[in-house]
Specification:
single chain; 420 residues; alpha/beta; D-Maltodextrin-Binding Protein, domain 2; Rossmann fold; two-stranded parallel sheet
Length: 420
């Protein structure tokens, strides 16, 4: 958490954990409830537990906190209504999810406290942020009194038929090298703790850098695999839902190199990955824009509609981006994550707006509660000229820009789905 925010909650004298975060999450007053109205409402970010270890650790810790247990979490514990309600209460404060904490750290450097109040990340990521925070306030590590995890980095040589004897021998030699070179001093220089948890942390793991070498005081036990699977499935049902508008280029050039056919595969992947609680819409564009499915209506028709898309015409990508942004913004929905996912394979040829106008439209939202984030995909070499403009639009909205081609477009759509 940002240090001034943590101090408002009593840091460092008071331990801050999920009990306080839950109260802030459900309070309509936000930080005004602790005498700091200037800090606004409480906003939390953690990565998607289906994609990220830090996100999974955060979500499992939420369920542990909701049950009061330190170990021995059961499926019955996870599905109990009181535990699910507490996790839902925490998750309602989510800004968005995502696949890596690196994106989150970058947003914090660029947007500061207006982006999020607190984030779940590994200690080493926090220490790196504070070293390169770019004028933003420092972060301080909060180790929840309810408990947290150690995230270790074991070296394992897999005993598998696809690993040759030479490869195993080489891995063994590399393991010996690391054991000799990576001592507690070397680990500490990079912000890591020593492998021996009883050894004193060195290097950057200090209070001055934002960490607490004496923590964590309460370490949680790893759930059994079936319980972990139950946590993930329950979280998917209870996490903060989303409004997502898919905006897809169907200009004539999408016929080239089998682009549209492969993009359809990416769209189908996206539709499989998102939650049934998410509301999804579809708009296509060439030189004209055609809304096909409004957000929240006829979701069941989306797979068949995607299969029937054809490519023809020019490219009005800037008009399509602006119209998509307007469509989601008019929902004025503060209870969901709001987003546009836009794919194009070429430079704009037919818009009435230019890139700068769309960037301004995206940026003027600020950090509003119903902020719409735009995730852009520059698809194939044909979109090379539009890549910079797409990146600017995504950044102005608080989203992320991607590049993709026919070989990896499904992976790109899967990565974007992690934000919801």
């Amino acid at each position: 958490m940002w240090k001034p925010f943590a101090q408002a909650l009593g840091y460092p004298k008071k331990k801050i954990g999920y009990e306080q975060l839950t109260k802030l999450a459900v309070s309509n007053q936000g930080f005004a409830s602790v005498g700091k109205p200037e800090f606004g409402r409480f906003k939390l970010v953690h990565t998607n537990p289906d994609f990220s270890t830090s996100g999974l650790s955060a979500v499992v810790a939420e369920y542990y906190a909701a049950t009061g247990k330190k170990e021995g979490l059961t499926e019955a514990d996870v599905t109990r209504s009181a535990a699910r309600k507490q996790v839902k209460d925490i998750e309602r404060s989510i800004v968005h999810y995502g696949d890596t904490t690196l994106f989150i750290a970058d947003q914090m450097r660029r947007k500061g406290p207006g982006y999020a109040s607190a984030v779940a990340m590994e200690e080493v990521t926090l220490l790196d942020f504070n070293r390169r925070r770019g004028g933003q306030p420092p972060l301080v590590a909060l180790y929840p009194p309810e408990g947290t995890f150690y995230s270790d980095n074991p070296f394992i040589v897999l005993d598998a038929p696809y690993n040759s004897r030479a490869e195993k021998d080489a891995a063994g030699e590399f393991q010996k090298f690391l054991a000799e070179e990576v001592d507690s001093e070397a680990a500490g220089r990079e912000g890591f703790r020593p492998a021996d948890l009883n050894a004193k942390p060195e290097g950057r793991v200090t209070a001055a850098a934002g960490a607490d070498p004496a923590e964590p005081a309460r370490v949680l036990g790893l759930p059994e695999p079936r319980v972990l699977d139950r946590i993930r499935r329950t979280w998917r049902a209870d996490r903060k839902p989303a409004n997502v508008l898919l905006v897809v280029d169907t200009s004539g050039s999408m016929n080239d190199e089998n682009r549209l056919a492969r993009a359809k595969g990416g769209l189908r992947t996206f539709l499989r990955e998102v939650s049934p609680n998410d509301r999804i819409g579809l708009t296509i564009f060439s030189d004209r824009i055609q809304p096909l499915v409004p957000i929240g209506q006829r979701r069941g028709e989306l797979p068949s509609l995607v299969d029937r898309l054809i490519a023809d015409g020019g490219t009005a990508v800037y008009d399509a981006a602006a119209q998509g942004l307007d469509e989601v913004r008019k929902l004025k929905d503060t209870e969901r994550i709001n987003a546009v996912v836009l794919l194009t394979d070429g430079e704009d040829t037919d818009s009435s707006l230019d890139a700068d106008e769309v960037v301004r439209k995206a940026a003027e939202q600020g950090d509003s509660e119903d902020q719409v984030r735009v995730f852009t995909i520059a698809y194939s070499a044909g979109a090379q000229g539009a890549t910079d403009a797409l990146k600017r639009i995504a950044q102005a909205s608080g989203g992320q820009a991607y590049t993709g081609d026919t070989d990896d477009i499904e992976t790109v759509y899967r990565s974007i789905s992690s934000f919801f």
